[in-house]
Write a structure and sequence with these properties.
single chain; mainly alpha; Growth Hormone, Chain: A; 21 helices
Length: 432
């Protein structure tokens, strides 16, 4: 934590009194790398199109909704478990040594899902996908941006996440729907994995670079950690803000992504077409883009975590609409509101990690918070399948998810002031 009279710029790329700008060729290339990694990452290629595979997989293997959900849930639960170690590995060995092998494995394992012929093989493929997803998740790309940007961190994070994970998640379901309709689910899985390997992987190999002095290594780790401001993971998990954030993210992800993961079968049961269901998913992620962009702009200008409250309230209202309305217009409006809340949650999680806990152990700390999101996704996915098989309908979930989102709103409202440098302090330090 910063001492009185000491300004924490929160970035290793710009130092106090430096007349240069955070926006330079190297920092912008790093931001582009983060955008690309998120555009082809697990949010876009695994979570977003998940509901489109439920019906084909049930038909292929003769499984119930809960059985299919139990297989698909391997991915978010696996990511949650692996994220606890991956963030620490990034802090210890650097981003390239974790991110790049992760992208390679993600593409290969993604293709392998299209070649399975038994439920246990599908489960095994999703286990490998989960390991790769943790290695190439938002944890690494958020750290990359945070290392290069301090004063403009919220703005750049929001742009990268919105135009990366948000746009990728909005477009992928439409592509997958066409692939499944024109070919089958196997071709869809194979195509998603092959795409990752053809273009994004070579570009990421060239572009993922950390600032001078932030590159971690076996012999320099102790020195580098001393140079970066912040708490250790042990110190962070003993703090009140950490657990308020953890449970708020868990509950919001459980309700929002749990809903979208079963959106197509849920909405077709209510009389909507699969096209409308897919469009609702795209609207959800387009809403996420709006939430990410606006929340980042606000975060850089208002020094309070309570700026997230309107977004969480919007998510609550949107989720209730998606679970109840029968009008297409209201359905898509609700999906947009849900997406705004989810988008802001993603952007704020990465931003608030740096403002409450600093950069010393950013990867390790954000890895644990990211695990809360993926654990929530898995819980929501399984609950939707379980309740549907038990009750014969998804209707009871509006009460479960509505309560979860209400609690998350309260938790965000209980967050206190930032522990690390505010926007005002960063601006003064940069001489702007």
């Amino acid at each position: 934590m910063t001492r009185p009279g000491v300004v924490d710029t929160g970035s290793v790329a710009v130092s106090p009194g430096d007349s240069g700008s955070e926006y330079n060729t190297r920092s912008l290339l790093a931001a582009f790398a983060a955008w690309l990694g998120l555009f082809i990452g697990p949010n876009a290629l695994v979570s977003a199109p998940m509901s489109l595979f439920i019906t084909p997989l049930k038909a292929e293997f003769g499984l119930s909704s809960f059985a299919v959900s139990s297989i698909l849930v391997i991915s978010p639960f696996g990511i949650a478990a692996c994220s606890l170690f991956v963030g620490r590995a990034m802090d210890r060995w650097g981003l390239r040594r974790v991110l790049l092998p992760g992208v390679l494995l993600f593409g290969v394992a993604g293709m392998a899902r299209g070649a399975v012929h038994a439920p246990w093989q599908l489960g095994l493929s999703f286990l490998v996908v989960s390991m790769a997803s943790a290695m190439t998740s938002a944890v690494g790309y958020a750290k990359l941006v945070s290392l290069w940007f301090g004063t403009n961190r919220g703005k750049v994070l929001s742009l990268v996440v919105a135009l990366g994970a948000g746009l990728g998640s909005a477009l992928t379901p439409q592509v997958v729907r066409l692939l499944i309709h024109d070919y089958d689910w196997r071709v869809a899985y194979f195509s998603l994995g092959a795409y990752v390997l053809i273009l994004p992987l070579p570009l990421l190999f060239l572009l993922v670079r950390e600032p001078q002095g932030a590159q971690a290594g076996k012999h320099s780790q102790q020195h580098n950690n001393a140079d970066l401001p912040g708490l250790t993971r042990h110190e962070a998990v003993r703090s009140r803000p950490f657990w308020l954030l953890w449970f708020a993210i868990f509950l919001a992800s459980m309700a929002l992504i749990g809903t979208t993961s079963h959106a197509v079968p849920m909405l077709t049961e209510r009389g909507f077409t699969s096209l409308v269901g897919t469009t609702a998913i795209s609207c959800f992620f387009f809403g996420g883009i709006a939430g990410q962009l606006t929340s980042g702009w606000i975060a850089d200008r208002i020094d309070s975590p309570r700026t997230a409250l309107p977004y969480f309230i919007a998510a609550l209202a949107g989720a209730l609409m998606v679970h109840t309305v029968t009008s297409k217009g209201l359905l898509l409006s609700g999906a947009l509101l849900m997406g705004m809340g989810q988008g802001a949650e993603i952007a704020f999680a990465a931003y608030l990690t740096s403002r409450y806990f600093g950069l010393k152990a950013y990867g390790s700390i954000y890895g644990v918070l990211f695990a809360s999101s993926t654990f929530g996704i898995g819980t929501g996915l399984m609950l939707m399948g379980l309740v549907h098989d038990f009750a014969g309908s998804y209707r009871p979930m509006k009460f479960v998810f509505g309560t979860a989102l209400l609690i998350s709103v309260v938790l965000v409202g209980l967050l206190g002031p930032y522990a690390f440098a505010s926007r005002k302090a960063l601006t003064a330090a940069s001489g702007k």
